[in-house]
Design goal:
The complex is a heterodimer of chains A (about 120) and B (about 110).
Chain A (H helix, E strand, L loop, with lengths): L3 E2 L4 E5 L4 E7 L6 E7 L6 E7 L4 E4 L2 E6 L4 E6 L8 E8 L10 E2 L3 E6 L1
Parallel strand pairs in A: 2-11
Antiparallel strand pairs in A: 1-3, 3-8, 4-5, 4-9, 6-7, 7-8, 9-10, 9-11
Chain B lengths: L4 E3 L2 E4 L5 E6 L6 E7 L6 E7 L2 E5 L6 E5 L5 E5 L8 E8 L7 E2 L3 E5 L1
Parallel strand pairs in B: 2-11
Antiparallel strand pairs in B: 1-3, 3-8, 4-5, 4-9, 5-6, 7-8, 9-10, 9-11
The chains are: A mainly beta (about 120), B mainly beta (about 110).
Chain lengths: ~120, ~110
């Protein structure tokens, strides 16, 4: 049972336009959400996160929106650049053992930004 | 800035052999997580440690064990390797109680 879902395996966007990556989750115990970017042969790189007490967090070109009632979050990248081309993973965490916050990942969306 | 270091980067083993993967967290990070990412799959949580104690356990096979040492580095020991163990193994670290995990580059294990 996939608790974090990224329903679009891939997305192509023109350089300079907005990229919108979507993520849905089913576990209402999740209270912290993260986006990671991954290049081939590298580990996931943290991009931006949001706590469940907020509905928006912004960092430069990246904005994450959280809709708790819909159990949906999205990552907006404006403007998109060719260097943003990578696989983007949505991840969620909730309280578990002894201060551990294991992440549950979606399957990723491969973003291609076309020059 | 120092990152999470994993070694080796690549490892080739045969069925029924053993493997040891190492993870050196970012300095002053005392919590370590291990994840397994199969081909075309999302990373799956295996196990975590805080202050040398196991803090949480996920879908880790009984053939695998792990520990965290006094310098906070961690090792994942895998025995009786199976073909299905071929995957990328990531380690991540955080300071105690922090929610943002920083990942290493991973170890690619191939079991032949």
């Amino acid at each position: 049972d996939q608790q974090v879902k990224q329903n679009s395996p891939s997305l192509s966007v023109q350089e300079g336009r907005i990229s919108i990556l979507n993520c849905d989750y089913t576990n209402s115990m999740f209270d912290y959400f993260l986006w990671y970017k991954k290049y081939p042969a590298e580990g996931p790189t943290f991009l931006i996160s949001i706590s469940s007490i907020k509905d928006k967090n912004e960092d430069g070109r990246f904005t994450v929106f959280l809709n708790k009632s819909a159990k949906h979050l999205s990552l907006h990248i404006v403007p998109s650049q060719p260097g943003d081309s990578a696989v983007y993973f949505c991840a969620a965490s909730g309280p578990s053992g002894a201060g551990s916050y294991q992440l549950t990942f979606g399957k990723g969306t491969k973003l291609s930004v076309i020059p | 800035a120092a990152g999470v270091i994993q070694s080796p980067r690549h490892l080739i083993k045969e069925k029924r052999e053993t493997a040891t993967l190492k993870c050196y967290p970012i300095p002053r990070h005392d919590t370590v997580y291990w994840y397994q990412q199969g081909p075309g799959q999302d990373p799956q949580f295996l196990i975590s440690f805080y202050e040398k104690m196991q803090s949480d356990k996920g879908s880790i096979p009984d053939r695998f064990s792990a520990q965290q040492f006094s310098d906070y580095h961690s090792e994942l020991n895998m025995s009786s390797l199976e073909l299905g163990d071929s995957a990328l193994y990531f380690c991540a670290s955080t300071p105690r109680g922090a929610e943002i995990q920083y990942f290493g580059a991973g170890t690619r294990l191939s079991v032949l």
